[in-house]
Amino acid sequence: MNLSKNKPIFKNMLFVEKKFKHDIFQKKVQIEFRQMAEDEKFNKSVEDELICAICYGIAEEALESQCCHKLFCETCIEELKSSESYKPLQCPLCRASASFQVKQEKSCVSKFARRLIDALPTTCPNNCEAKNLVRGNIKQHLTQCPNSKYTCSYPKCDFSGNLQGYQQHIQERHGSDLVTAFDAFWKKTEQSDNSASSNTSWFYYLHFFFFFFFFNKVE
Ligand SMILES: [Zn+2]
Ligand SMILES: [Zn+2]
Ligand SMILES: [Zn+2]
Ligand SMILES: [Zn+2]
């Protein structure tokens, strides 16, 4: 058998075999990763690594010490700094100095940990029905959460409730004031438009949108 004649095919076969092995390896890694992501023990061990060494919660705005490479919340470090017992720039865990020069340089902000923490799944603190919430988008969610609490800003009114309840409350309890304020708003807008100084009109427009919102949203 003349091998040299078959060389290109032989070479090709080697390549295919190599590629095949590589693909199998990749598949295996993918499957393992998927299994790990669903594995509670694995998730727990990852979460353990993301815990603040001061408050034992998931590190908020994570900082990483440059000495022992542990994570801390930015607020926990700030609180520690303002306490009397704190020695300036000393690590609270291993006592190494110059570990948290947050103000001087941003070197101890752990961007990687922050990314991981932002991706951790979470639930709405107001127990709304929202799905797919992660820690990174919870603040944004709370600005539009249907269960977010609103307290009435009317003097001596102690109403508090969700957005829909608040809208209803304003219409039912302060409806007449709403009309007065609405009228006053338009008259003032007219005046300021007629007068030379219309500098403040944007402010009234802002209020108009506020009232417009309520008149439209309340059923
Ligand atoms: Zn340390
Ligand atoms: Zn903390
Ligand atoms: Zn919510
Ligand atoms: Zn009220």
UniProtKB/TrEMBL annotation:
UniProt-listed GO biological process terms: regulation of canonical NF-kappaB signal transduction
Domain of life: Eukaryota
Residue ranges of domain TRAF-type in the record: 120-157
Alphabetical UniProt keywords: Metal-binding, Zinc, Zinc-finger
Molecular function, one GO term: zinc ion binding
Domain RING-type positions: 52-95
One Pfam family recorded for the sequence: zf-TRAF
Keyword match Zinc: yes
InterPro entries from the UniProt entry: Znf_RING (IPR001841), Znf_RING/FYVE/PHD (IPR013083), Znf_TRAF (IPR001293)
Zinc finger map (TRAF-type): 120-157
Protein name: RING-type E3 ubiquitin transferase
Organism: Reticulomyxa filosa
